[in-house]
Amino acid sequence: MxxxxxxxxxxxxxxxxxxxxxxxxxxxxxxxxxxxxLDTKSSPTDVVTKMDRAAEELIRTRLLQARPDxxxxxxxxxxxxxxxxxxxxxDPIDGTVNYLYGSPDWAVAVAAEVDGxxxxxxxxxxxxxxxxxxxxxxxxxxxxxxxxxxxAVPLDRALVATGFGYFPERRAQQARVLLEVLPRVRDIRxxxxxxxxxxxxxxGRCDAYYERGLHPWDWAAPGLVASEAGVRVGGAGGGPPSxxxxxxxxxxxxxxxxxxxxxxxxxxxG
Length: 270
Ligand code: IPD
Ligand code: CA
What we know:
By secondary structure, this protein is α+β, with helices and mostly antiparallel strands. The chain is built from seven helices and 15 strands. The N and C termini lie far apart (41 Å). The site of calcium ion has 5 residues, from strand 5 and helix 6.
Protein backbone atom coordinates (compact mmCIF):
# COMPACT_ATOMS: atom_id res chain seq x y z
CA MET A 1 0.00 0.00 0.00
CA UNK A 2 1.15 3.53 -0.79
CA UNK A 3 2.24 6.05 1.81
CA UNK A 4 2.31 8.94 -0.65
CA UNK A 5 0.86 12.42 -0.11
CA UNK A 6 -0.60 12.76 -3.64
CA UNK A 7 -4.34 13.17 -3.80
CA UNK A 8 -5.48 9.84 -2.42
CA UNK A 9 -6.79 7.34 -4.95
CA UNK A 10 -10.22 6.15 -3.75
CA UNK A 11 -9.62 2.73 -5.32
CA UNK A 12 -6.46 2.37 -3.28
CA UNK A 13 -8.33 3.43 -0.13
CA UNK A 14 -11.07 0.90 -0.91
CA UNK A 15 -8.52 -1.88 -1.34
CA UNK A 16 -6.94 -1.01 2.00
CA UNK A 17 -10.36 -0.83 3.68
CA UNK A 18 -11.23 -4.29 2.35
CA UNK A 19 -7.87 -5.66 3.42
CA UNK A 20 -8.14 -4.45 7.02
CA UNK A 21 -11.86 -5.27 7.33
CA UNK A 22 -11.09 -8.82 6.21
CA UNK A 23 -8.30 -9.28 8.72
CA UNK A 24 -10.26 -7.71 11.60
CA UNK A 25 -13.34 -9.79 10.70
CA UNK A 26 -11.30 -12.96 10.85
CA UNK A 27 -9.88 -11.99 14.25
CA UNK A 28 -13.32 -11.10 15.63
CA UNK A 29 -14.97 -14.26 14.24
CA UNK A 30 -12.30 -16.41 15.90
CA UNK A 31 -12.93 -14.64 19.21
CA UNK A 32 -16.74 -14.70 19.20
CA UNK A 33 -17.34 -18.00 20.98
CA UNK A 34 -17.46 -17.55 24.74
CA UNK A 35 -16.87 -13.79 24.57
CA UNK A 36 -18.04 -11.82 27.60
CA UNK A 37 -18.71 -8.19 28.49
CA LEU A 38 -15.50 -6.34 29.29
CA ASP A 39 -16.98 -2.94 30.05
CA THR A 40 -19.99 -0.69 29.49
CA LYS A 41 -19.98 2.70 27.76
CA SER A 42 -22.81 5.23 27.46
CA SER A 43 -25.30 3.14 29.47
CA PRO A 44 -25.37 -0.31 31.15
CA THR A 45 -26.78 -1.83 27.93
CA ASP A 46 -24.02 -0.30 25.76
CA VAL A 47 -21.40 -3.02 26.08
CA VAL A 48 -17.87 -3.55 24.84
CA THR A 49 -16.03 -6.86 24.57
CA LYS A 50 -12.29 -7.43 24.44
CA MET A 51 -12.75 -8.27 20.77
CA ASP A 52 -14.22 -4.82 19.92
CA ARG A 53 -11.01 -3.36 21.29
CA ALA A 54 -8.70 -5.95 19.73
CA ALA A 55 -10.33 -5.59 16.30
CA GLU A 56 -10.09 -1.81 16.41
CA GLU A 57 -6.47 -1.97 17.57
CA LEU A 58 -5.64 -4.23 14.63
CA ILE A 59 -7.41 -1.92 12.17
CA ARG A 60 -5.63 1.18 13.52
CA THR A 61 -2.26 -0.54 13.38
CA ARG A 62 -2.74 -1.77 9.81
CA LEU A 63 -4.09 1.56 8.53
CA LEU A 64 -1.25 3.54 10.08
CA GLN A 65 1.35 1.03 8.86
CA ALA A 66 0.07 1.59 5.32
CA ARG A 67 -0.73 5.32 5.62
CA PRO A 68 1.03 6.84 8.65
CA ASP A 69 -0.23 10.40 8.01
CA UNK A 70 -3.94 9.64 7.98
CA UNK A 71 -6.42 10.53 10.72
CA UNK A 72 -8.63 7.89 12.34
CA UNK A 73 -11.95 8.01 14.17
CA UNK A 74 -12.90 4.73 15.78
CA UNK A 75 -15.84 3.75 17.97
CA UNK A 76 -13.63 2.35 20.71
CA UNK A 77 -10.45 4.43 20.47
CA UNK A 78 -11.82 7.85 19.53
CA UNK A 79 -10.11 10.31 17.21
CA UNK A 80 -6.46 10.58 16.18
CA UNK A 81 -5.41 13.43 13.92
CA UNK A 82 -3.40 13.23 10.71
CA UNK A 83 -1.94 15.45 8.00
CA UNK A 84 -2.78 13.66 4.74
CA UNK A 85 -6.41 14.86 4.37
CA UNK A 86 -7.70 11.29 4.71
CA UNK A 87 -9.69 10.27 7.76
CA UNK A 88 -10.69 6.67 8.42
CA UNK A 89 -13.97 6.05 10.20
CA UNK A 90 -14.06 2.65 11.85
CA ASP A 91 -16.61 0.50 13.62
CA PRO A 92 -14.65 -2.61 14.60
CA ILE A 93 -17.79 -4.59 15.51
CA ASP A 94 -21.15 -3.07 14.60
CA GLY A 95 -23.79 -5.13 16.34
CA THR A 96 -21.82 -5.83 19.50
CA VAL A 97 -24.89 -7.16 21.33
CA ASN A 98 -25.49 -9.70 18.52
CA TYR A 99 -21.80 -10.57 18.66
CA LEU A 100 -22.05 -11.13 22.42
CA TYR A 101 -25.09 -13.40 22.04
CA GLY A 102 -23.52 -15.50 19.27
CA SER A 103 -25.83 -14.08 16.59
CA PRO A 104 -24.60 -13.66 13.02
CA ASP A 105 -25.67 -10.05 12.31
CA TRP A 106 -22.54 -8.08 13.08
CA ALA A 107 -20.06 -6.38 10.82
CA VAL A 108 -16.67 -4.71 10.59
CA ALA A 109 -17.06 -1.31 8.91
CA VAL A 110 -14.17 0.76 7.55
CA ALA A 111 -14.65 4.01 5.60
CA ALA A 112 -12.19 6.54 4.19
CA GLU A 113 -13.22 10.18 4.14
CA VAL A 114 -11.48 12.90 2.11
CA ASP A 115 -12.41 16.54 2.73
CA GLY A 116 -15.40 15.45 4.78
CA UNK A 117 -16.82 13.09 2.10
CA UNK A 118 -16.74 9.32 2.40
CA UNK A 119 -15.02 8.14 -0.78
CA UNK A 120 -14.30 4.47 -0.10
CA UNK A 121 -15.77 1.80 2.13
CA UNK A 122 -15.67 -1.83 3.16
CA UNK A 123 -18.23 -3.68 5.28
CA UNK A 124 -17.36 -7.24 6.23
CA UNK A 125 -20.12 -9.50 7.60
CA UNK A 126 -17.94 -12.48 8.55
CA UNK A 127 -20.68 -14.88 9.65
CA UNK A 128 -22.36 -14.55 6.25
CA UNK A 129 -19.01 -14.57 4.43
CA UNK A 130 -19.94 -11.27 2.79
CA UNK A 131 -17.62 -8.40 1.90
CA UNK A 132 -19.35 -5.22 0.69
CA UNK A 133 -17.20 -2.53 -0.89
CA UNK A 134 -17.83 0.83 -2.53
CA UNK A 135 -16.09 3.81 -4.05
CA UNK A 136 -17.79 7.20 -4.39
CA UNK A 137 -19.04 7.43 -7.97
CA UNK A 138 -17.63 3.97 -8.71
CA UNK A 139 -20.46 1.74 -7.53
CA UNK A 140 -20.92 -0.83 -4.77
CA UNK A 141 -20.09 -4.51 -4.88
CA UNK A 142 -20.84 -7.58 -2.83
CA UNK A 143 -18.14 -10.21 -3.19
CA UNK A 144 -17.17 -8.58 -6.48
CA UNK A 145 -20.70 -8.43 -7.97
CA UNK A 146 -22.13 -4.96 -8.71
CA UNK A 147 -25.07 -4.06 -6.46
CA UNK A 148 -28.22 -2.30 -7.59
CA UNK A 149 -30.93 -1.85 -4.96
CA UNK A 150 -34.39 -3.05 -6.05
CA UNK A 151 -36.97 -0.44 -7.06
CA ALA A 152 -38.97 1.33 -4.36
CA VAL A 153 -42.21 -0.21 -3.10
CA PRO A 154 -45.06 1.85 -1.64
CA LEU A 155 -44.67 2.61 2.06
CA ASP A 156 -47.44 0.22 3.06
CA ARG A 157 -45.53 -2.63 1.42
CA ALA A 158 -42.10 -1.66 2.71
CA LEU A 159 -40.05 -3.82 5.05
CA VAL A 160 -38.50 -1.17 7.26
CA ALA A 161 -35.39 -1.73 9.37
CA THR A 162 -34.66 0.43 12.38
CA GLY A 163 -32.68 0.38 15.58
CA PHE A 164 -32.81 1.68 19.10
CA GLY A 165 -30.25 3.62 21.13
CA TYR A 166 -28.84 2.72 24.51
CA PHE A 167 -30.59 5.35 26.68
CA PRO A 168 -33.98 4.51 28.25
CA GLU A 169 -35.47 7.96 27.46
CA ARG A 170 -34.44 7.69 23.81
CA ARG A 171 -35.88 4.19 23.60
CA ALA A 172 -39.20 5.33 25.03
CA GLN A 173 -39.41 8.02 22.32
CA GLN A 174 -38.32 5.52 19.64
CA ALA A 175 -41.13 3.22 20.81
CA ARG A 176 -43.63 6.10 20.44
CA VAL A 177 -42.41 6.73 16.88
CA LEU A 178 -42.69 3.02 16.15
CA LEU A 179 -46.36 3.11 17.19
CA GLU A 180 -46.96 5.43 14.24
CA VAL A 181 -44.72 3.61 11.77
CA LEU A 182 -45.61 -0.05 12.37
CA PRO A 183 -49.29 0.13 11.29
CA ARG A 184 -48.27 1.89 8.05
CA VAL A 185 -45.60 -0.48 6.70
CA ARG A 186 -45.29 -4.17 5.74
CA ASP A 187 -43.28 -4.88 8.86
CA ILE A 188 -40.37 -3.76 10.98
CA ARG A 189 -36.96 -5.41 11.39
CA UNK A 190 -34.61 -4.71 14.26
CA UNK A 191 -31.51 -6.66 13.34
CA UNK A 192 -29.14 -5.00 15.78
CA UNK A 193 -26.54 -3.68 13.36
CA UNK A 194 -26.87 -0.46 11.41
CA UNK A 195 -24.15 -1.71 9.04
CA UNK A 196 -26.11 -4.89 8.29
CA UNK A 197 -29.32 -2.85 7.87
CA UNK A 198 -27.80 -0.30 5.49
CA UNK A 199 -25.91 -2.82 3.36
CA UNK A 200 -29.11 -4.92 3.36
CA UNK A 201 -30.84 -2.12 1.46
CA UNK A 202 -28.32 -2.55 -1.33
CA UNK A 203 -29.18 -6.25 -1.66
CA GLY A 204 -32.95 -5.93 -1.20
CA ARG A 205 -33.09 -7.60 2.23
CA CYS A 206 -35.21 -4.68 3.37
CA ASP A 207 -36.73 -1.65 1.66
CA ALA A 208 -36.00 1.21 4.02
CA TYR A 209 -34.10 2.08 7.18
CA TYR A 210 -34.29 4.85 9.72
CA GLU A 211 -32.68 5.46 13.07
CA ARG A 212 -32.01 8.37 15.39
CA GLY A 213 -28.94 8.74 17.58
CA LEU A 214 -26.35 6.96 15.42
CA HIS A 215 -22.67 7.89 15.29
CA PRO A 216 -20.61 8.49 12.11
CA TRP A 217 -18.97 5.05 12.38
CA ASP A 218 -22.42 3.43 12.24
CA TRP A 219 -23.32 4.90 8.84
CA ALA A 220 -20.07 6.01 7.11
CA ALA A 221 -19.06 2.78 5.38
CA PRO A 222 -22.47 1.07 4.94
CA GLY A 223 -24.05 4.39 3.90
CA LEU A 224 -21.67 4.64 0.94
CA VAL A 225 -22.42 1.02 -0.03
CA ALA A 226 -26.14 1.79 0.04
CA SER A 227 -25.90 5.09 -1.85
CA GLU A 228 -23.64 3.63 -4.51
CA ALA A 229 -26.29 0.94 -5.02
CA GLY A 230 -28.89 3.63 -5.78
CA VAL A 231 -30.30 4.12 -2.29
CA ARG A 232 -30.87 7.67 -1.06
CA VAL A 233 -29.15 8.11 2.31
CA GLY A 234 -29.98 11.31 4.16
CA GLY A 235 -30.86 12.93 7.42
CA ALA A 236 -33.19 15.43 9.03
CA GLY A 237 -34.70 18.24 6.95
CA GLY A 238 -33.24 17.05 3.65
CA GLY A 239 -29.67 17.27 5.00
CA PRO A 240 -26.97 14.61 5.13
CA PRO A 241 -27.11 11.70 7.58
CA SER A 242 -26.44 12.84 11.12
CA UNK A 243 -26.71 11.76 14.72
CA UNK A 244 -30.16 13.32 14.67
CA UNK A 245 -31.50 11.07 11.93
CA UNK A 246 -30.44 8.63 9.25
CA UNK A 247 -33.04 7.66 6.64
CA UNK A 248 -32.26 5.40 3.71
CA UNK A 249 -34.42 4.01 0.91
CA UNK A 250 -34.91 4.23 -2.83
CA UNK A 251 -35.90 7.85 -3.57
CA UNK A 252 -39.73 7.58 -3.81
CA UNK A 253 -39.95 5.48 -0.66
CA UNK A 254 -37.44 7.75 1.07
CA UNK A 255 -39.76 10.70 0.57
CA UNK A 256 -42.78 8.84 1.92
CA UNK A 257 -40.88 7.69 5.01
CA UNK A 258 -39.41 11.17 5.54
CA UNK A 259 -42.95 12.64 5.41
CA UNK A 260 -44.11 10.11 7.98
CA UNK A 261 -41.17 10.67 10.34
CA UNK A 262 -40.79 14.47 10.11
CA UNK A 263 -43.80 15.44 12.28
CA UNK A 264 -42.87 12.78 14.82
CA UNK A 265 -39.86 14.92 15.76
CA UNK A 266 -36.43 14.32 17.20
CA UNK A 267 -36.21 12.18 20.27
CA UNK A 268 -34.81 12.92 23.69
CA UNK A 269 -31.07 13.07 23.95
CA GLY A 270 -29.85 10.54 26.42
C1 IPD B 1 -25.34 -0.27 17.36
C2 IPD B 1 -26.01 -1.03 16.24
C3 IPD B 1 -27.51 -1.02 16.42
C4 IPD B 1 -28.06 0.38 16.51
C5 IPD B 1 -27.36 1.16 17.61
C6 IPD B 1 -25.85 1.13 17.38
P1 IPD B 1 -22.91 -1.06 18.13
O1 IPD B 1 -23.93 -0.23 17.18
O2 IPD B 1 -25.67 -0.49 15.00
O3 IPD B 1 -28.18 -1.64 15.34
O4 IPD B 1 -29.44 0.31 16.76
O5 IPD B 1 -27.84 2.48 17.57
O6 IPD B 1 -25.22 1.85 18.43
O7 IPD B 1 -23.02 -0.45 19.51
O8 IPD B 1 -23.31 -2.47 18.12
O9 IPD B 1 -21.58 -0.82 17.49
CA1 CA C 1 -21.83 0.62 15.76
